[in-house]
Write a structure and sequence with these properties.
About 20% of the residues are buried. The protein is mostly beta strands. The termini are far apart. The strands form two sheets. A five-stranded antiparallel sheet has the order 1-6-7-8-9, with no helix packed on it. Helix content is about 5%, strand content about 50%. The chain contains one helix and nine strands.
C-alpha cells in the first residue's frame, strides 16, 4: 500500500478487502482494493474508495506505475459534528501512487446552498495532471434523537 500523508497519515486508510482482477502465476495478482477512512474534521462521515493495485514483479516490489482510476463513496454514519473551520477543497486524505509523481487525494468542500458536504477524489500527476476523479455528496441530516443540524457554511474559512 502506498504511504499516506496529510491529516489521515497517523491512522491511514483501513483496508476493507481486495478482489483479484488478473491472476498471476508466481507473483501477486492485480487487484481492486477497497479502503475506508474517517473524515478527521467532520465526525460522523466515512468515505470508501476503490483503486486498482498492480501485481506482478513490479507490484511485488512496490515499483509499478499505478493507474489513475479511482472511485469514491462517502456517507453519514452518525451525527455530523464539524470540529474546526475548513477551506473549500481542503485535503482530507492523500497517498502516493507511484515512486515520484502521482498522488490520490480526497478533498472536501461545502455546498452552501444545499448544506451538503462534497467530497472529491482525484489522481494527480505533477507533470501532466489527470482527469480521473469521482465525487460523493453527504447531506447534513438529523441523526437519531439528535435534531441539531450544523450548517457547513458556518465552518468555512473566509
Amino acid at each position: 500500500m502506498p504511504a499516506a500523508t496529510g491529516a489521515m497519515a497517523q491512522n491511514g486508510p483501513d483496508l476493507i478487502f481486495r478482489k483479484s482482477t488478473v491472476w498471476k502465476m508466481l507473483t501477486p495478482d492485480d487487484t481492486l482494493a477497497v479502503y475506508g477512512i474517517d473524515d478527521p474534521v467532520v465526525e460522523g462521515v466515512a468515505c470508501h474508495y476503490t483503486l486498482p493495485e498492480r501485481g506482478g514483479i513490479k507490484g511485488m516490489f512496490g515499483v509499478a506505475e499505478e493507474v489513475s482510476d479511482v472511485s469514491l463513496s462517502c456517507r453519514q454514519i452518525g451525527p455530523i459534528t464539524i470540529k474546526q473551520k475548513f477551506e473549500q477543497g481542503e485535503v482530507v486524505f492523500s497517498e502516493r501512487r507511484s515512486l515520484v509523481f502521482k498522488r490520490v487525494q480526497i478533498v472536501r468542500g461545502c455546498d452552501v446552498k444545499r448544506n451538503v458536504l462534497v467530497y472529491l477524489v482525484y489522481s494527480d500527476k505533477l507533470i501532466e495532471g489527470s482527469p480521473k476523479n469521482s465525487t460523493s455528496s453527504v447531506p447534513i441530516m438529523p441523526w437519531g434523537v439528535n435534531t441539531n443540524v450544523q450548517n457547513c457554511a458556518e465552518w468555512l474559512k473566509k
